[in-house]
Recover the amino acids of this structure.
């Protein structure tokens, strides 16, 4: 059994005993076989000495047990790493950022506490997955949708806290943005409820997210200031219909008016679905007349409103010379089984695991990535930014890819978020340490090159969270120093998820 | 919000169409009472897997055909309801993503990987074998045995599967490393054989 860093065997044994008393002996894991389950399945350091691994794991089932676990950790100064279901693959999974931490596994806290159809919200515990919530809603015949990410087996709370999102309409697909109220256990074991939940016997916890006074919920997004044990979410009332249009522009520079038009329509909330942008600078040999850019524009709502909004979109895009606008099939919900089987389920609020079908090796897909990590910088939502990033990628590709010998893939421009875009580069991760080392080097190089141009990550794999945090260095890293000040105040022993998203407690901070 | 699915689709990593004409996962073969393994999954695109499926089905086990690593329906309709009641063993000769997904889901229900072998089918149809993990309570099998079996190697995997009994004391368990692909020659395919069992 490994020891957490800076913890002696006697203290660790005492802590393990206390945790067994609190949560039951069956739910404290110390054997190598059990602890190995918390490895990051896509670790870019897989099998290398630097791979981040846990020393043990403890799995409470109630908030009172979470309090007890945290208090013991505080007493013995043992670092904990909180996970919900631990399926944050490509971003660290269930492995701690600080190697040797004890994983605080919350997947036994899996109760759907409330789904309110009338006001369209849910209150859940961290172990509730999108599958669980969808099943609850289906069994109860409630007329609201979940907004599943891809894949849908992860935690509703975990995905929101990591900065994840889904595929239906805005604002529901911005998972942290669509939350309303939290319950958090602080490092000293105290329970805090945010927003209206701070009112004893509150009757409006999931009705108003802001409450009274400074809003603190953001401290817990990609954070390590507390352990979130409950969270409310706005749910999407089942839309009557959904229709997607396809817009194409032939010229490379058409991306500028295409995105300007799309932005207007989204900012007006005429387009509310998760749009997709395909294309890029025209490759040599591309057939004449082929579209340089394709945008898919989904709209959810009442059928007659969707049809009117579609018509309005058509009028707006028609002002771009040469652009084409093609309306797709209009779907009326709920979908029957046959229809559901031919559409992308997550766009209709149904979680699935089909992503893994694409990730696996098969005869038509002989060199899949298997594991992967992604570099996901935010860029402005303009055509000019897309073209500038494309040039930047092309100019640096030969160098970073070592003359094209490293097969990473990108850039793909993601328009899922409103107001900004992600220009993603994806790196395959396998079992070969030499390959992985090269991919890590390429990842680091892109981070540095992009930061020099003013672009930085919104979400990073655990192994690169420090590197990406350092790119946010305005005014000598003032933002990081503010976060560290808060961290030191609320978690003076630095026991909660040290290093998560580059926020380290005082005793582990590097000069 | 960034989606790996969207990314993969755009990079041309697409799902494989069903080539064999076999039923997909939602159409289970006739089920009889399984002796020890609740269900055996096979990837119907591969003759070795189909051969194993026929062999196992002949012994009374339920066999499901999966074709593209997409196990959502199988999970929601078949496996999860059973595992919620009691942990029962599954086995498979499939792509690695099927094992990866089921293994992750199995942990929550008290099941672990008790056997894991990889079979790299080269364009010449020669197959390279690597036994990654085998609980010693299961029938012995190693790379040499599998190579010696030639084209009939999946029968030896079937022997491992049928050596599993409900009361077998499975103690040495994974996790597998099925989430990460091994380095393979160009044009090769990877099949994965596995048992997930209660511990």
């Amino acid at each position: 059994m490994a020891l957490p860093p800076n913890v002696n065997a006697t203290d660790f044994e005492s802590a393990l005993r206390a945790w067994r008393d609190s949560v039951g002996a069956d739910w404290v894991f110390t054997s190598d076989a059990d602890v190995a389950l918390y490895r990051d399945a896509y670790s870019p350091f897989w099998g290398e000495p630097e791979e981040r691994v846990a020393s043990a794991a403890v799995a409470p089932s109630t908030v009172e047990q979470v309090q007890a676990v945290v208090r013991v950790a505080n007493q013995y100064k043992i670092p904990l790493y909180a996970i919900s279901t631990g399926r944050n693959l490509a971003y660290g999974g269930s492995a701690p950022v600080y190697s040797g931490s004890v994983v605080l596994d919350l997947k036994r806290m899996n109760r759907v506490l409330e789904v309110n159809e009338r006001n369209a919200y849910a209150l859940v515990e961290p172990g509730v997955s999108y599958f669980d919530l969808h099943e609850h809603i289906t069994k109860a015949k409630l007329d609201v949708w979940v907004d599943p990410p891809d894949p849908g087996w992860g935690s509703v709370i975990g995905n929101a806290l990591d900065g994840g999102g889904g595929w239906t309409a805005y604002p529901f697909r911005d998972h942290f943005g669509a939350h309303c109220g939290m319950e958090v256990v602080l490092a000293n074991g105290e329970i805090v409820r945010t927003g209206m939940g701070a009112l004893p016997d509150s009757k409006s916890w999931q009705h108003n997210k802001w409450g009274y006074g400074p809003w603190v919920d953001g401290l817990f997004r990609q954070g390590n200031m507390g352990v979130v044990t409950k969270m409310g979410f706005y749910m999407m009332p089942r839309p009557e219909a959904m229709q997607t249009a396809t817009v194409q522009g032939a010229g490379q520079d058409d991306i500028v008016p295409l995105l300007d038009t799309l932005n207007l329509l989204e900012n007006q909330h005429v387009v509310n679905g998760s749009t997709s942008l395909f294309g890029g600078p025209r490759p040599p040999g591309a057939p004449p007349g082929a579209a340089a850019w394709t945008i898919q524009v989904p709209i959810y709502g009442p059928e007659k409103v969707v049809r009117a909004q579609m018509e309005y979109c058509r009028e707006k895009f028609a002002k771009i010379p040469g652009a084409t606008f093609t309306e797709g099939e209009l779907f009326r919900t709920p979908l029957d089984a046959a229809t559901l089987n031919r559409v992308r389920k997550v766009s209709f609020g149904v979680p699935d695991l089909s992503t893994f079908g694409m990730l696996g090796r098969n005869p038509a897909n002989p060199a899949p990535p298997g594991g992967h990590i992604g570099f996901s910088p935010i860029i402005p939502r303009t055509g000019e930014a897309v073209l500038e990033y494309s040039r930047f990628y092309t100019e640096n590709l030969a160098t970073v890819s070592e003359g094209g010998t490293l097969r990473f893939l990108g850039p793909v421009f993601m328009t899922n978020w409103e107001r900004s875009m992600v220009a993603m580069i994806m790196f395959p991760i396998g079992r070969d340490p030499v390959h992985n080392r090269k991919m890590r080097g390429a990842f680091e190089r892109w981070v540095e090159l992009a930061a020099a141009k003013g672009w930085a990550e919104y979400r990073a794999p655990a192994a690169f969270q420090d590197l990406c945090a350092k790119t946010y260095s305005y005014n000598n890293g003032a933002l990081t120093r503010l976060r560290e000040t808060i961290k030191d105040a609320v978690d003076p022993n630095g026991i909660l998820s040290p290093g998560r998203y580059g926020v380290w407690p005082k005793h582990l901070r590097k000069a | 919000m960034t989606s790996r699915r969207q990314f993969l689709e755009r990079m041309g990593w697409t799902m494989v169409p069903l080539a064999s004409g076999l039923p997909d996962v939602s159409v289970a073969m006739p089920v009889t009472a399984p002796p020890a393994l609740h269900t055996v999954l096979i990837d119907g695109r591969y003759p070795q897997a189909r051969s194993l499926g026929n062999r196992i089905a002949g012994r009374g086990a339920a066999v499901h055909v999966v074709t593209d690593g997409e196990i959502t329906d199988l999970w929601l309709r078949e496996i999860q309801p059973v595992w919620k009641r009691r942990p029962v063993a599954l086995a498979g000769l499939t792509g690695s993503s099927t094992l990866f997904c089921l293994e992750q889901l199995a942990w929550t229900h008290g099941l672990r990987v008790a056997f894991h072998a990889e079979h790299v089918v080269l364009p010449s149809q020669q197959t390279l074998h690597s036994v990654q993990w085998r609980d010693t309570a299961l029938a012995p099998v190693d790379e040499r045995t599998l190579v010696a079996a030639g084209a009939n190697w999946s029968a030896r995997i079937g022997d491992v599967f049928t050596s599993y009994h409900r009361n077998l004391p499975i103690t040495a368990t994974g996790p597998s490393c099925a989430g990460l692909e091994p380095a393979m020659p160009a044009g090769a395919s990877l099949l994965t054989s596995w048992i997930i069992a209660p511990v």
